[in-house]
Design a protein that fits this description.
The structure holds two protein chains of two kinds. Helix content of chain A is 0%, strand content 47%. In chain A, strands 2, 4, 5, 6, 9, 10 and 11 form a seven-stranded mixed sheet that branches. Chain A has a four-stranded antiparallel sheet with strand order 1-3-8-7, with no helix packed on it. In chain A, a hairpin with a 2-residue loop joins strand 5 and strand 6. Chain B is globular and about 45 Å long. Chain B contains no helices and twelve strands. Classes of the chains: A mainly beta, B mainly beta. Chains A and B meet through strand 5 and strand 10 of A and strand 5, strand 6, strand 10 and strand 11 of B.
Amino acid sequence: EAGVAQSPRYKIIEKRQSVAFWCNPISGHATLYWYQQILGQGPKLLIQFQNNGVVDDSQLPKDRFSAERLKGVDSTLKIQPAKLEDSAVYLCASSLDTGARGGETQYFGPGTRLLVL
Amino acid sequence: GNSVTQMEGPVTLSEEAFLTINCTYTATGYPSLFWYVQYPGEGLQLLLKATKADDKGSNKGFEATYRKETTSFHLEKGSVQVSDSAVYFCALRRNTGGFKTIFGAGTRLFVKA
């Protein structure tokens, strides 16, 4: 079974530029997550989708970050304009369903490493 | 609010030593608890999980028991190998109100031959 795909793997931009990341989840997974992982810290949830709808975006800096999941499959995360503190690894994950207690297993992609200069 | 606290690393052990990585949590309700591992150059992957009090998760020789009375989920392994060198993340998932997962800061483990 193919895993979660992300692109690009690395990106270097200057502050105030914009950047977009792409994620293709595991086929059939209803839930998709975007995390930000700053060096030395654990992943922080930015946004969680179930199918097309947003379940949680409480920690997404909405003045500069946006995300969409068209047709309930692929997703893009955009930063516009980027700041120095956005330098991090952006992780995409997917899972079958959020609804059932059962310790939902998330499957992570390799991440996109962003450096903002 | 909900949070996860892990022991700070790095943890350095010799091969075949006993490993404990402490994890405590604060949560409303009854979360599910996880350990994820990130090997060098790889993405995060689930190591083990437990969904209710007194459950024990186990995988690859690692174990952790969901202790509600002490709000803990400590990771243990009886005999570590060099290949266990990685960063270990404790996490909780709320089972109400959006099912958000919260990760600890991670603990880096080095195992020497």
